[in-house]
Design a protein that fits this description.
Layout: E1 3-7, H1 33-42, E2 47-51, H2 57-67, E3 73-79, H3 87-95, E4 100-106, H4 119-130, E5 134-138, H5 144-153, E6 159-161, H6 177-185, E7 190-194, H7 212-222, E8 227-229, H8 242-252, H9 259-273
Helix pairs in contact: 5-6, 6-7, 7-8
């Protein structure tokens, strides 16, 4: 099974995508399964994991409704607000759908990432960890210290770091991101998505070789069994097309990587992580 482990769908008129405005014309339109299908076919992908793009339970319900109608959606990563006393009830409601595979913790949008170390957060995540619930971790490189501290308190967290934690690729900065990624990778329950990299580079003037040290470092830290390919389509369109995203990753893979490693990267690891 070949899988794109990270992409999005949305309908603008739903009204809960406040970050997508007319000022971003490339994204300010509907993106639905028929729009992605040609890209999946071109790269021999059987389907994709669709990830929430709005911080509302209603959007998760919308994505689950799409999943019920489209076989290319292999799983839905929804939204849970762990500060809401009803988060467990929402989780139970979503989990009744066979394609609900987990939820995303949107650390990126938190003014203070240290909030994830609050007792209520830690207690909630320990509960989900005990159930082996898959948790996507949307985090920026300057927020990795709180995430490292969180994982120490929730060592059983079954998590995947989205977008290689958004290092400052445009600046060519490797540290402290590199050291912190290595520390996170020492936790065997954590995975990492090779996704969302092109939008961390200069959108107009990126070069494929810029991504090589970042990809190689992630692969060295996590190994071939805990990395997932994700296009981050259509957000990637801010800087590159689907084909270019795949080409960037292919150019950065080690020469020693063969068919077995690629099968894991392009699907088998996603299948294992999300228990498809």
């Amino acid at each position: 099974m070949r899988i794109d482990a990270h992409q999005h769908y949305w309908k603008i008129d739903r009204g809960d995508y406040g970050w997508i405005t007319p000022d971003i014309p490339v994204l300010y339109r509907d993106f639905l399964p028929l729009d992605l299908k040609p890209h999946l076919d071109a790269h021999r992908l059987d389907g994709a994991i669709v990830v929430q793009a709005a911080p509302t339970p209603e959007e998760t319900e919308f994505l689950l409704s799409l999943a019920g109608q489209d076989d290319t959606i292999k799983g839905v990563v929804g939204y849970l607000d762990l500060t809401d006393d009803r988060h467990a009830a929402y989780y139970e409601r979503f989990a009744r759908h066979q394609k609900f595979v987990g939820f995303r913790l949107m650390i990126q949008d938190m003014p203070d990432a240290g909030v994830i170390l609050a007792p209520s957060y830690v207690e909630a995540l320990r509960g989900y960890a005990a159930q082996s619930v898959a948790v996507d971790l949307l985090v920026k490189s300057d927020q990795l210290k709180p995430l490292i501290d969180l994982v120490k308190q929730v060592p059983g967290l079954h998590g995947v770091i989205d977008h290689i934690a958004k290092p400052r690729i445009a600046e060519g900065a490797m540290e402290p991101w590199g050291r912190q990624i290595a520390e996170l990778a020492s936790h065997p329950n954590l995975y990492c998505k090779l996704s969302g990299m092109v939008t961390e580079a200069d959108h107009e003037n990126w070069k494929a070789e810029q991504f090589v040290p970042y990809v190689r470092h992630v692969l060295e830290c996590f190994g071939p069994d805990r990395v997932l390919f994700g296009s981050d389509w259509p957000v990637c369109l801010l800087a590159a097309g689907y084909d270019e995203v795949v080409d960037i990753l292919e150019r950065a893979l080690p020469d020693a990587w063969g068919a077995a490693e690629r099968e894991k990267l392009y699907g088998l690891n996603a299948k294992a992580f999300y228990r498809l």
